[in-house]
UniProtKB/TrEMBL annotation:
Its EC number is 3.1.1.5. The keyword Lipid metabolism applies. The gene is PLB1. The keyword Cell inner membrane does not apply. Residues 1-15 form the signal peptide. This is Lysophospholipase. Belongs to the lysophospholipase family. SUPFAM superfamilies: FabD/lysophospholipase-like (SSF52151).
């Protein structure tokens, strides 16, 4: 694990890609030959980082709880006398730009840097959180914030430079042909540089460079040389100001196209890429991706710069690689067409939705139970939502992370009208019973009809409110699993689930909508803020206190502390009580976000203090493409 000082110094000087371009290049190897490790615990780096972050989250948690107006509760003495550091994880789902924008608003309400969030939202919850996880569209959100010096959503919106979505990523220059030519020419040069350095290209490379124009527009060469591992040296990360960012992708087993609960889930964090699943059960150092290894060991020749930040974020969102193939549908002039055709020819389109990690960092290792993954010279990663777990809860239920409460923000497009219906939580619940579950535990959740019928998507819902009721999960573990890491039901996190809902804006845009006017973008973000703040707390003046009750619940249970009357009231209001109603009924929205009548039936005026008339049912050509894609990829697959 030790890295010799001699090698660290040049690495710090040259924190971005060693070639200062999209191409990976040679870097000094660490003195330890081994780049992989078995996934039996946290990495030493994450462990060390937590030593610094824990005091920050606990101090910020005290502030949050004090500001939440909880009755009969002394936040300071409670947190200071807790048996463990209270650990909060935030998870933002996939669902294209819809998920990115809804998630941005939801996140803004948790950020004490957002104007008024302390009073009208849940300001400070972000600062009190240990982990911040994103998947696909949600990973665009998490990656943008993390890689841009932990900027805030409010600053992004005010500055108006990042997330310019007025024009689609395929044609960002409109009729300005010279500008458009430069855009594609630049991307073509980037891809050529990587190819000339000896690396295979996939459509994810093209997609990665396009995404970077929207997310890293302020950085030199729109982040062509920006690597994910530079997070390790980023000020807000090293001074523990930001949570630990993680993005999620799925592994595709060689010669198989089926993605299911049996697939391998991968995470990429600032230090490592890998999986806790038995099929792989290893991590590799993300900085040295691109290095040839045998059984996890380098031979003295190492590569850096493969972990391009846009590529890592493109990997979690490969479903959208398909957009790239729409280039030729734009009204692009001849010369440009040739250029594009040329670079598309260099890229593997055989499987459009994969990201190629070649060389495979786990090549010829023997830890994992699916040997075809380790035998292949390439590791194939795909969109994290393809296994139906569209809310990236996976990194947060790993027992080693000891998370007390998970805030799950679901902006999936499960229904025909692109609303979430809880399907992602059902998939996560079921996976714990498969071999791949490997000692993870997740509270009981109902079927998707019950989610709708009992208003569990209409307003926030708490799952696993009473840890004692979770003991039955211990009775049905897969046979190969020892339950030693999670020895107590109190170690199974409570889940606060919040689903996308329309308040001031119809936020159910198609997953495949590629452009948003400034007004639409702001409408989506504002609505997201209203979703996570319960319409600026107008729907529940006690909302912050109720969130506080959820955060402290497991620690109270550990210490057998009785809940306050207020917390009991909150739990009666928000906890799923185990009731089921699986009938197949229609759904609609009232102004308080609850359901009543047929779904999304046209124009409507939203009251609730805001008088805006909003056009329902966002249509676009990509909606049609979206439906086709959904059918082609996986039946019932929803992102
Ligand atoms: C909280 O975390 C800090 C730093 O990791 C550690 O020193 C401390 O013992 C932890 N507190 C508890 C109660 O476990
Ligand atoms: C706490 O109560 C005060 C006074 O009623 C109110 O101004 C403030 O917004 C409340 N804070 C929260 C977080 O609800
Ligand atoms: C990053 O943000 C901090 C404030 O959190 C600021 O002091 C610093 O200058 C910023 N660094 C860069 C490179 O923008
Ligand atoms: C910016 O990127 C260009 C093109 O990759 C490179 O030539 C130049 O050295 C970079 N500048 C800095 C300050 O890194
Ligand atoms: C590696 O995986 C690819 C894609 O599934 C497959 O075509 C190839 O045969 C595999 N190679 C080996 C050596 O298994
Ligand atoms: C998952 O694997 C188990 C055996 O390990 C098998 O019985 C089951 O059919 C698989 N499920 C899917 C959806 O592939
Ligand atoms: C890795 O090994 C392969 C096969 O031996 C070789 O083609 C490739 O150039 C090597 N890559 C690097 C970066 O050394
Ligand atoms: C290490 O592997 C690289 C290919 O990745 C090869 O070019 C180089 O010669 C090897 N070096 C040693 C010392 O074996
Ligand atoms: C665009 O290219 C794809 C393949 O790259 C092809 O299938 C499709 O027909 C082309 N469409 C147009 C309008 O040229
Ligand atoms: C769901 O919300 C609607 C509208 O407020 C209400 O009529 C209905 O009773 C609620 N259902 C349940 C099970 O709470
Ligand atoms: C798990 O705990 C049981 C009982 O304490 C013990 O017998 C067993 O060896 C442990 N298993 C592992 C893998 O540590
Ligand atoms: C808790 C648990 O069962 N962990 C297992 C996860 O998978 C690895 C690899 O198969 C096992 O070694 C662990 O015991």
């Amino acid at each position: 694990m030790k890295i010799s000082l001699l090698f660290l110094i040049p690495a710090l000087v040259n924190a971005w890609s060693p070639t200062n371009s999209y191409a990976p290049g040679r870097i000094e190897c660490p003195s330890d030959k081994r780049l992989t490790r078995v996934a039996e615990g946290l990495s030493s780096e994450e462990h060390a980082w937590l030593e610094g972050r824990n005091p920050v989250t606990q101090a910020n948690l005290i502030k949050f709880l004090q500001n939440a107006n909880m009755t009969d509760f002394d936040a300071q003495s409670f947190v200071e006398n807790a048996k463990k550091n209270i650990t909060i994880g935030l998870a933002f789902s996939g669902g294209g730009y819809r998920a990115m924008l809804c998630g941005a608003g939801q996140l803004a309400a948790l950020d004490s840097r957002t104007t008024n969030a302390d009073a009208s939202g849940l300001g400070g919850l972000l600062q009190a959180s240990t982990y911040l996880v994103g998947l696909s569209g949600g990973n665009w959100l998490v990656g943008t914030i993390a890689m841009n010096n932990f900027t805030s959503v409010e600053k992004i919106v005010d500055d108006g430079k990042i997330w310019d979505l007025e024009r689609s990523i395929i044609n960002p220059a409109g009729w300005n042909v010279v500008k458009l030519y430069k855009y594609y020419n630049g991307i073509s040069d980037d891809l050529n540089a990587k190819k000339d350095a000896g690396f295979d290209l996939s459509l994810t490379d093209t997609w990665a460079r396009m995404l970077s124009h929207q997310f890293f527009s302020e950085l030199n060469d729109t982040g062509a040389a920006l690597t994910w591992s530079t997070l390790q040296e980023s000020d807000p990360f090293t001074n523990h100001e930001m949570p630990f960012p993680i993005v999620v992708a799925d592994g595709r087993t060689p010669n198989s196209y089926i993605i299911s609960g049996n697939s391998t889930v991968f995470e990429t964090n600032p230090f490592e890429l890998g999986s806790w699943d038995p099929s792989v059960y290893q991590f590799t150092k993300v900085k040295y991706l691109g290095t040839n290894t045998t059984d996890g060991e380098h031979n003295g020749t190492c590569v850096g710069g493969f972990d391009n930040a846009g590529y890592v974020m493109g990997t979690s969102s490969t479903l959208f690689n398909q957009f790239v193939l729409q280039i030729n549908t734009t009204s692009i002039v001849g010369a440009l067409k040739d250029l594009i055709t040329h670079f598309l020819n260099d890229v593997s389109k055989a499987e459009n939705d994969i990201a190629i990690y070649k060389p495979n960092p786990f090549h010829k290792t023997d830890e994992g139970t699916i040997s075809s993954i380790a035998q292949n010279d390439t590791l194939y990663l795909v969109d994290g939502g393809e296994d139906l777990q569209n809310v990236p809860i996976y990194p947060l239920i790993q027992p080693e992370r000891k998370v007390d409460v998970i805030f799950a923000y679901d902006n999936s497009g499960d229904t025909d009208q692109y609303w979430p219906n809880g399907a992602s939580l059902v998939a996560t619940y079921e996976r714990q019973f498969l071999t791949q579950g490997n000692g993870t535990y997740f509270p009981h959740v109902p079927d998707v009809n019950t989610f709708r019928n009992l208003n569990l998507t209409a307003k926030p819902a708490f799952f696993g409110c009473d840890a004692k009721n979770l003991s039955s999960l211990f009775n049905s573990p897969p046979t190969n699993v020892s339950t030693n890491v999670t020895s107590s039901v109190y170690d199974i996190p409570l889940v606060v689930y919040t689903a996308n809902r329309p308040f001031s804006f119809w936020s159910n845009t198609s997953t495949f909508d590629m452009d948003y006017t400034d007004a639409q973008k702001k409408g989506m973000i504002r609505n997201g803020y209203e979703v996570s703040s319960r319409l600026n707390k107008t729907l529940d003046s006690e909302w912050a206190a109720c969130v506080g009750c959820a955060i402290i619940r497991r620690e109270q249970e550990r210490q057998s502390i009785e809940q306050s009357e207020q917390c009991k009231r909150c739990f009666a209001r928000y906890c799923w009580n185990g009731e089921l109603d699986s009938s197949d009924a229609g759904v609609n929205f009232t102004t308080d976000g609850t359901t009543n009548g047929p779904e999304n039936d046209g124009n409507r005026t939203v009251s609730a203090g805001l008088s805006i008339t909003i056009q329902a049912g966002n249509t676009s050509v990509f909606k049609a493409i979206g439906y086709a894609l959904l059918c082609i990829l996986v039946l019932g697959f929803s992102i």
